[in-house]
Design brief:
The structure is a single chain. With 296 residues, this protein is an alpha+beta fold. It has a domain of 112 residues: Chitinase A, domain 3. It has six helices and seven strands, in the order H-H-H-H-H-E-E-E-E-E-H-E-E. Strands 1, 2, 3, 4, 5, 6 and 7 form a seven-stranded antiparallel beta sheet that branches. It starts with 13 loop residues before the first helix and ends in a 17-residue tail after the last strand.
């Protein structure tokens, strides 16, 4: 979900990735095997014990049941995991050329086949870290220049897009911050969120070329309103519970010059948002005064 200020870290390290994505608690004595412990309640009759045994058996069958994935799905899952690993491991920030990427993949293949590392880690770790840090620093300088140019072009494109849109759609309004919006349904105006609330919404996020970069796909998501990008935080407060709004968010109220997957730096964002519910933060709820006792 790309509403939030920063990117969610998928895993603390590549080594933790498999366990995190599997999400299955396994018997430590047998790797990958789900342990099912059979228990019969104390004092149970034979009939009750049988029923309990059947229940345990059903639970075991359900636990062992596996969802069937097609060969294509499995291939795409593994490619996606490889993509996640690459993006989260920091390799992306080294600016590797094609040959260097092939060398990294060769190391992955060696590990997968149980082969030893080309270098003794204890002997080269310090030099390895220095080498990677130098490559990362050098690439960061080059990449920053590229990002600034991309961001500037996208900001210009977003500005031109909005200038044309505002001429053709007078229903779109603009706030003092530069956020543009169009209210589709006002909702219950007596129930509007404030920035300390949690909100439940449905949404679709797209770029000015119409490409969808994120969506809740008809489901609802709940999050703290003060934990999202400024344009979302401001815009959601403009409608009441049940309201619908389209937000046109300039880059300075979105992700600025951050270059993140599917959202190029400097991008103008468009969000279709439906405010389903408002959940008051317990810490900010007004304290109710106790009613004074009545005297006869």
């Amino acid at each position: 979900m790309k509403l939030f200020r920063g990117l969610t870290n998928i895993g603390a390290s590549v080594l933790m990735g498999v366990g995190c994505l599997m999400g299955v608690e396994t018997d430590k004595s047998v790797k990958g095997e789900i342990k099912v412990e059979e228990k019969t309640p104390r004092g149970a009759t034979s009939a009750e014990a049988k029923e309990s045994g059947n229940k345990v058996g059903n639970e075991a069958a359900n636990a062992e049941a596996k969802k069937v994935f097609t060969e294509e799905q499995q291939a795409n899952f593994l490619k996606t995991y490889g993509w996640v690993t690459f993006m989260q491991s920091g390799v992306k920030n080294l600016g590797l050329n094609t040959k260097e990427v092939e060398q990294v993949m060769s190391g992955v293949q060696m590990a997968a086949h149980g082969e030893e590392s080309p270098c003794a880690l204890g002997e080269v770790m310090e030099d390895l870290q220095t080498f990677l840090q130098e490559k990362s620093t050098a690439y960061a300088k080059i990449h920053q220049v590229e990002i600034k140019a991309i961001a500037e072009n996208n900001r210009k494109a977003g500005k031109a897009y909005m200038e044309n849109l505002l001429k053709t759609k007078p229903s779109i309004k603009t706030t003092v911050t530069g956020l543009a919006y169009e209210i589709i349904a006002t909702g219950d105006e007596s129930q509007k969120p404030i920035e300390t609330d949690n909100v439940e919404i449905r949404y679709t996020g797209r770029l000015i070329d119409g490409k969808v970069f994120d969506e809740s796909k008809g489901k609802t998501v709940t999050f703290p309103l003060n934990g999202v990008v400024p344009g979302i935080k401001e815009g959601v407060q403009l409608v009441g519970k049940g309201g619908k709004i389209v937000l046109y968010i300039p880059s300075e109220l979105g992700y600025g010059e951050f270059d993140i997957p599917s959202i190029p730096a400097g991008s103008h964002l468009i969000f279709d948002v439906e405010l389903v519910n408002i959940l008051k933060n317990e810490a900010t709820k007004p304290v109710e005064k106790p009613e004074s006792s009545k005297t006869s």
